[in-house]
Amino acid sequence: MQKTLILLKPDAVQKSLIGQILTRFEQKGYKVIGLKMMQMSEELVNEHYDFLMDKPFFPNIKSYMTSSPIVALALEGTEVIKGVRMLCGATNPAEAGPGTIRGDFAKNIDNNIIHSSDSEETAEKELARFFKSEELFDYSCLLYTS
Ligand code: GDP
Prior knowledge:
By secondary structure, this protein is an alpha+beta fold. It has seven helices and four strands. Guanosine-5'-diphosphate (GDP) is lined by residues 52, 57, 60-61, 91, 109-110, 112, 115, 118.
């Protein structure tokens, strides 16, 4: 079963959107296997967004991602990586469809509410970056059982 890493970015936390966003994933049937609030350090932002380090907007990312706590979330489900990215919507909220998380809640590309892994390879690396193995749980989900 696929797993993915999601970050509810500082604006999601500050706008009290944690519950609404989690509900969307639970309603879709994805299983929460890890969840924690944390403060990202500059070092962790550098590591997580190292592929964007040369971009002119990198300083914005750094100050944004460290501006308040975030919530890290690990989900499991069939095709969960692609499914979560569809629920999140386009990177630029102006292009994100209505009904998507970014389309509904995000202000602009600098403050786009949510991160999710984009491939199985990335998900594996990102889950290990944010969760120790003992912080990821295996349990039976009763959602679809009688
Ligand atoms: P994602 O997978 O949809 O989050 O998109 P990317 O991996 O391409 O970019 C990571 C994050 O960098 C995005 O979520 C944005 O917060 C930020 N970002 C990406 N492209 C731009 C851009 O052109 N301008 C600005 N200001 N931020 C960007």
